[in-house]
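Session log. Operator J.P. requested a structure for one protein chain; no other inputs attached. Running the standard single-chain path with C-alpha cell output.
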Amino acid sequence: MKKSFKHNTLTLQKMKQNWWRSASYYKQNHFVFKLGLSILLLGFGFRLLFSQSSNVIPNETDNNNNNINDNIDIDTPVLDNDVKQKPLDFVESPKDINQFQPEDNESGKCDITDGEWIPNSGSPAYTNSTCRWIETHQDCMGNGRPDTGYMYWKWSPKGCELPRFDAKKFLETMRDKSWAFVGDSITRNHLQSFLCLLSQVEDAVELYHDKDYKNRKWHFPSYNLTVSVMWSPFLAKADIFEDIDGVSSSEIQLHIDILDKTWTDLFDTWDYVLFSSGKWFIKSAIYYENNSVLGCHGCTGKKYTDLGFNFAYRKILKNLFEFILKSNPKSMVIYRTSTPDHFENGTWSTGGSCDRTVPAKEGDFEMSELNRLLREIELPEVSKAEERASEKGMKLKLLDVMPLSLVRPDGHPGPYRHFYPFAEDKHAKVQYDCLHWCLPGPIDSWNDMLMNLVVSG
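Structure written below.
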C-alpha cells in the first residue's frame, strides 16, 4: 500500500514538472495550463481514495492473531444458501449455549429426579402433634427416636427448583375432586404424608374404615375433596396368609389374570388414582391363571415351575394398564415406582438394621438386584401405557421416587417402629423397619414431586 502511494506521488511530481515546463514554453496557453493541471490533480485524488477503500483487508497481526490461514479466500467468502446470517447485535443466551433445562418434568426438560439432598433450615411441614393420621409404626418421634436431623433436608434437582408442597393451592385446585391411593403398605405410608400435609390447612374428616383400617376414606369439607386408600399389594386378586409382622403361614395364592375387585369396582368414581406395588412380588407365591395353577415363585418343595416374580409383576402391570385404558377416560392415573429398602447386615427376617442418621453420598448405596429387576419392568411398561393413553387423550404419568429415596438410609424407622424399644434394655433385640419411612421425613418430598406432576406440571 505504501509503495503504491509513493509511486503515485512521484508520478504526480514528474507530471507537475512537465506541466510547468509546458507553461513556461507556452505562455500564451496559460489558461489551458491551469485548467489541465486542476483536472489531473482531481483525477489522481479520486484514484487514491478508491484504491484505499477497496483494498483494505484485516491485518494478519491485528489483535495478536498470527494464526490466520494464508490460503483463506478473503475476497470471496462462501455461505451455505440455507444458513441465515445473524444480525450484528445478536448475542446467544446462556440458555442456548449451556443447554440449560427449564423448570418442568416433561421429556427433554428439567429432570426433577436428578439432584441431591441439601440441608433445610426450615421446620418440617408438620409433626406428630399437628397431624393425627400418622400410623404408629412410622411415628418415629413419638416412638422415641433420639435424632431429628433426618427431617431437615430438602431435595434439590439440578438445574431447576422443586417447590415445596403447597397445601392451600392443592386443595383449591382439587375442589370437588376425588383421590385414591391403591397399593401396599408403602402406598399407605405415602398417603399418610399426603393427608398430614393437607391437614395443615384443614383437618380431614374420616368417613370410612374397614375392621383392619387398611381401606379408608376421608373428606375435606371446605373443599369437598375426598381421599381414599385401598389395600391391594399385588393390584390383583390374592389370598394372603400373613400376620402384622410379615410372617407367612402359607404361600400367597396370586391370580395374575384377575385384578383386585377392591379397587376395580370403584375406579370409575375417582378423578385421580395413584397406583404402586412391587415389593410384595418377592414373597413366595403360587400363580394362578384361569383358576388353575400356572407356576410359582420361591415355592421350594412344590412340584411347580418357578416362573420368577418378574414374570408375575410384568403380567399384572400389563393387565392393569389394559384395564385403565379401556375404562374411565376422565381419571388422571399416576404410577409410582417401587422404592428401596436400606437393610444392612441382613434383611427384614434375618436381623438387618439401619442406624444411619444422615443421607448417603451418591454411590454409597447401589440399587439392589431386586429393585433393578422391578424397574426394568415398571419403566418400559409405564412408558408404553403413557404413549397409548396420550393417543386416546387420557392422562397417565410416572412418579419416579427411586433416585431421591435411594440415598436416604436415615429416613426409616429402624428400631423405632416400636414404642421406646430400648427403654428397659439398651441391648434389646428388636425388629428393624428399614423399608417404610418416618413421618415427617424424606417421603414428604414424594408429595412435592406429586404436586409438581399434577398441579404445576
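Operator note: Confidence is low (pLDDT under 50) at residues 1-37, 42-107.
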